[in-house]
Specification:
Shape of chain A: globular
Strand order of the largest sheet of chain B: 1-2
Structural class of chain A: alpha/beta
CATH superfamily of one domain in chain A: P-loop containing nucleotide triphosphate hydrolases
Number of domains of chain B: 1
CATH topology of one domain in chain A: Rossmann fold
Radius of gyration of chain B: 26 Å
Strand order of the largest sheet of chain A: 5-6-7-3-8-9
Order of helices and strands of chain A: EEEHEEHHHEHEHEEHHEEE
Largest interface: A-B, 40 and 30 residues
Distance between the termini of chain A: 17 Å
Helix content of chain B: over 70%
Radius of gyration of chain A: 19 Å
Number of strands of chain B: 3
CATH class of one domain in chain A: Alpha Beta
Number of helices of chain A: 8
Order of helices and strands of chain B: HHHHHHHHHHHHEEHE
Number of strands of chain A: 12
Shape of chain B: globular
Oligomer: heterodimer
Helix content of chain A: 25-40%
Strand content of chain A: 25-35%
Structural class of chain B: mainly alpha
Number of helices of chain B: 13
């Protein structure tokens, strides 16, 4: 937690998002105080990326508002790491960050070098982005996201494809940023790391938050011993099943038996860990 | 503002509160002006940052460099082997005119069809938006960078082969311009300038396609279709229309101005060629041709700016 106080930096109110006939998000509200890490977890297709794009100001929601409160000393409002970052070929890692730095006031080459060191790419700064491994490319994406010390940092599955040590390093970097006052929203499937580093966890399923709270609250509310176990109980999926959500409808496929069961609008039966309202942490 | 205070310095009848309000109004206006200046300054700065990145991308893309080399070799070959280089500037212009009409659209496709689509595909477009880059900065920067590279290639190559004329022509011209009928370097420079304008217009259309489409396949298909239409399709349709009587003979000047290729050709014939063998060339209306090219350029870039990404309202507390 930060020492800068608990004021809310990012506030989303009643976000709806539809693509044609498909409703992806419905009435999602979220507040992220300065200096905290908020994790959004949920099955594949539950709307995490859509929500993060709305929060980052990249996509306009069908309904609802997203507001930002400035107040940090950084050069930009929002930093964003997409789910699959990629960069223009032919440039080195340093060239790439230098280009982004030129778009920001008061950010120079020294900040670029410091950012590369911070995300663990100092040794490969002059290597072409085409020759970076998938994990390194993701770390470079993290570097582009944190450049200029944004007030809000939005990371879409930053640990995907990284080995456990890299995941740990990444979450440590995220934790350090939060310590410095950044409000972080992170979508992740790395539940042990989320459990260790997140201040609040929001479980998104079927386009709605079905539970919100600290990792401890989610564990105790579901009588689980770990966040992973709590997650499985909250999204009603047993280990051994694969779950894919399609908009507000959902399909659960039992891989072991090859059976397919469709459940429509199952979120109507959900309750949060306290048995009360499910959509907001405000 | 006091309703009675029409003249400057007239403070009679204005309450203290109104004076404070006046002062606040001026400060607010100054703040808005300063904010507007900052925005313009940021837009221009970001535009040049992005243009620089585009230039660096071009010089680091082997396929584009190979195409550029092929263009230089082809134009050089035409100038060397054809009658143009040995015959003077006007023959050289006539030799190169069709060549430029065909090759420039193809080069523009190569230089531009992935320009914006590439960033969309990698996700960098989304990342760039979090750096508060405006649509004008981004599209303008991409276009400027690519245009600088492509126009430099076209203009540099044409000027270089123009230098062959004094070398290869037996009767070496020692003047730039004497009279309307003379074969002069000035006429060739006009052709090169018009080729630069034509290049800018066609590239704008290709960048517009790159901003509008969402897949490489669609972008390439549309850009190739555009090049084909410019090089062959529109002229063929006009000829067929005239032959069938659908297009009236007296409206041909307007219709020629609608296609960048025929507008460019008309301008070259009217300003860089003039009279051939003592006979005036029917080249349409120069003004209409100019307006046609300007319209293509403006519409293409406007479409690119509007379609590159949707505006998302930002709310700050």
């Amino acid at each position: 937690m930060s020492e800068n106080g608990p004021e809310t930096v990012l506030r989303a109110r009643a976000i709806d998002q539809s693509f044609g006939d498909v409703d992806v998000l419905s009435g999602v509200s979220l507040s992220v105080p300065r200096g905290t890490v908020a994790a959004v977890v949920g099955p594949n297709g539950s709307g995490k990326t859509t929500l993060l794009r709305v929060l980052a100001g990249i996509a306009a929601p069908t309904g609802g508002t997203v507001s930002l409160q400035r107040g940090g000393t950084g050069a930009r409002r929002v930093g964003y790491l997409p789910q699959r970052p990629a960069f223009r070929a032919g440039f080195s890692a340093r060239d790439t960050l230098e280009f982004y730095a030129q778009l920001l006031d008061g950010v120079d080459g020294r900040d670029v070098d410091a950012t590369l060191e911070r995300v663990g790419l100092g040794e490969v700064r002059d290597r072409s982005v085409g020759s970076l491994s998938g994990g390194m490319t993701r770390l470079l994406g993290l570097g582009a996201a944190v450049l200029g010390d944004p007030d809000v940092l939005i990371l879409d599955e930053p640990g995907s494809g990284l080995d456990p040590s890299m995941v740990e390093r990444l979450f440590r970097v995220v934790g350090d940023l939060a310590e410095d006052g950044t409000a972080v929203v992170i979508a992740s499937h790395e539940l042990p790391a989320v459990e260790a580093h997140a201040d609040a966890v929001h479980v998104l399923d079927g386009g709605r938050f079905v539970a919100s709270g600290s990792p401890g609250e989610l564990r105790s509310g579901t009588d689980a011993t770990s966040l992973s176990e709590a997650f499985l109980r909250l999204v009603r999926t047993d280990a051994g099943e694969t779950t894919v959500r399609a908009g507000l409808d959902e399909t659960t496929e039992k891989t072991s038996a090859g059976e397919t069961t469709e459940r429509a609008n199952a979120d109507g039966n959900r309750s949060d860990v306290d048995g009360s309202e499910v959509t907001t942490d405000e | 503002m006091s309703e009675s205070g029409e003249g400057t310095g007239d403070s009679e009848g204005i309450s203290d509160g109104e004076r404070i309000s006046d002062g606040e109004g001026i400060r607010e206006k100054e703040r808005i002006d300063r904010s507007r200046r900052d925005r313009v300054s940021d837009t221009v700065r970001n535009l040049f940052v992005i243009a620089t990145r585009e230039l660096r991308t071009i010089v680091r893309t082997p396929a584009i460099l190979a195409l550029a080399a092929a263009f230089v070799a082809s134009v050089g070959g035409v100038a060397w082997a054809g009658t143009g280089g040995r015959g003077g500037f006007v023959p050289l212009t006539l030799d190169l005119l069709t060549f430029v009409e065909v090759l420039v659209p193809l080069l523009a496709v190569a230089f531009g069809y992935r320009s914006i689509l590439g960033d969309r595909g990698t996700g960098e477009l989304d990342v760039l938006r979090t750096f508060d880059v405006s649509r004008v900065s981004y599209v303008g920067g991409v276009y400027l960078g690519r245009a600088l590279a492509l126009v430099s290639l076209v203009v540099g190559t044409l000027l270089a082969v123009g230098l062959l004329v004094p070398t290869l022509t037996a009767d070496i011209p020692t003047f730039l311009a004497v009279n309307e009928a003379a074969d002069s370097g000035v006429r060739y420079v006009r052709f090169v300038a018009l080729a630069a304008v034509f290049t800018l217009v066609v590239l704008a259309a290709v960048v517009g396609i790159s901003a509008t489409t969402r897949s490489v396949r669609t972008a390439f298909a549309l850009a190739a279709a555009l090049a084909l239409a410019l090089v062959l399709g529109i002229d063929t349709a006009l000829v067929a229309g005239i032959a069938s009587g659908l297009v009236p003979g007296d409206g041909i000047g307007v219709l020629l101005a609608l296609s960048p290729n025929s507008a460019f050709r008309g301008l070259v014939l009217s300003t860089a060629i003039g009279a051939v063998g003592g006979a005036e060339v029917a080249a349409g209306e120069p003004l209409l041709n100019g307006v046609g090219l300007l319209a293509w350029w403006l519409v293409s870039l406007s479409v690119a700016v509007r379609r590159v990404w949707p505006v998302v309202e930002s709310i700050e507390e």
